[in-house]
Design brief:
Layout: H1 2-17, H2 23-34, H3 39-45, H4 55-81, H5 106-120, E1 124-125, E2 131-133, H6 134-137, E3 164-166, H7 171-180, E4 185-194, E5 206-216, H8 221-236, E6 242-249, E7 252-261, E8 278-287, H9 289-294, E9 303-310, H10 311-319, H11 332-335
Parallel strand pairs: 1-4
Antiparallel strand pairs: 2-3, 4-5, 5-9, 6-7, 7-8, 8-9
Helix pairs in contact: 1-4, 2-4, 5-10
Bound molecules: phenylalanine (PHE).
Length: 342
């Protein structure tokens, strides 16, 4: 009897020490311990030879090892087959959890609307780098070194490279396009620009522009006016009036700034329009012949117009935003007001 007990203890230890690493090893274990000719079967068969007074103790031991052997078998089997089916069912017809949608930034909405309006007139989008060289930002645009108009644009220069700067306007993209493409050219250039200005409600060190350029035969100032008038009506509504004031830009001649009637007071005067009833929204003009020449475009054959507007300003007038800093403070209470399409 003593010997048998030792044998059972040895089997127990064996069961505890094995860990089948695959279906085959598991099956070998099953056959060895749980099979019809397995160890457990033969142990149970030994019951009949056990003296009556030890039958109970022996029976308990056998049941213990049987449970151990079967329990280990089941848990190995499950871990080899993957996670057990818990009986929990997923109802695939239930609606999903709603994902809170963010809103689009008012500058993006306004930029896209501007691009869309000019897109309908046949202008296609052109883009260029924000780190620009002197030629594309200034010299090619008829702004040679020491030209006083360079002072109008408080430029950020890049220390490590004397020729590089952060573009002060997207007119640099016009230069890049004229360099590669010949008329007809009809492009709109949206993008971020940088100027070294003190940040306040009315100025920021970076902002966004969309500039347009149209070069072809027989392009006139009348085309410029009509194009911009169409834009204003689409952007702000049919009742808005425009006016042009003579101005100066080195890359256009003649040049003009365009105002629209103040949407906030309707023209009667308020602090947004500085009590004039008019708000300036863009600069424009006929492309300077010198600029066309710079890119090998014959100014006797081709003429063109160009314009540039600040997206923040258009957005400010459209949505009545009184502080430029709101655009870049990322305050969700401000930003979430612009979910609707423009
Ligand atoms: N580049 C000018 C600016 O940034 C705007 C402009 C563009 C004016 C094209 C005339 C023609 O102020």
């Amino acid at each position: 009897m003593e010997q048998l007990l030792q044998q059972i203890e040895a089997y127990k230890q064996e069961i505890l020490s094995i860990a089948p690493d695959g279906a085959e090893a598991l099956e070998a274990y099953r056959i060895k311990f749980l099979g019809t000719k397995g160890i457990l079967k033969s142990l149970f068969a030994g019951m009949k030879d056990t003296p009556a007074d030890q039958k109970k103790e022996f029976g308990l031991l056998l049941n213990e090892i049987k449970q151990l052997a079967e329990g280990r078998y089941e848990s190995w089997k499950q871990s080899l087959e993957g996670s057990p089916d818990t009986g929990e069912k997923i109802d695939l017809t239930l609606p999903g959890d709603p994902l809170p949608l963010g809103s689009r930034h008012p500058i993006s909405l306004t930029r896209d609307k501007i691009v869309h309006i000019f897109g309908r007139l046949g202008f296609s989008v052109a883009e260029g780098p924000e780190i620009e060289d002197d030629w594309h930002n200034f010299t090619a645009l008829n702004l040679p070194e020491n030209h006083p108009a360079r002072d109008m644009q408080d430029t950020f220069y890049i220390h490590q490279h004397p020729d590089w700067l952060l573009r002060t306007h997207t007119s640099s993209v016009q230069a890049r396009v004229m360099e590669k493409q010949k008329p007809p050219i009809r492009i709109i250039c949206p993008g971020r620009v940088y100027r070294n200005e003190t940040i306040s409600a009315r100025a920021h060190c970076f902002f966004h522009q969309t500039e347009g350029l149209y070069v072809d035969e027989n392009v006139s100032f009348a085309d410029l006016k009509q194009t911009l008038y169409f834009f204003v009506q689409e952007m702000f509504g049919k009742d808005v009036k425009i006016r042009f004031r003579p101005s100066y830009f080195p890359f256009t001649e003649p040049s003009a700034e365009m105002d629209i009637t103040c949407l906030i007071c309707g023209g009667s005067g308020c602090n947004i329009c500085k009590h004039t009833g008019w708000v300036e929204i863009l600069g424009s003009g006929m492309v300077h012949p010198k600029m066309l020449e710079n890119f090998g475009i014959d100014p006797n054959k081709y003429t063109g117009f160009a314009f540039g507007m600040g997206v923040e300003r258009i957005c400010q007038v459209k949505y009545r935003i009184n502080d430029l800093r709101l655009y870049s403070q990322n305050d969700v209470r401000f930003l979430s007001q612009f979910t609707a399409a423009t």
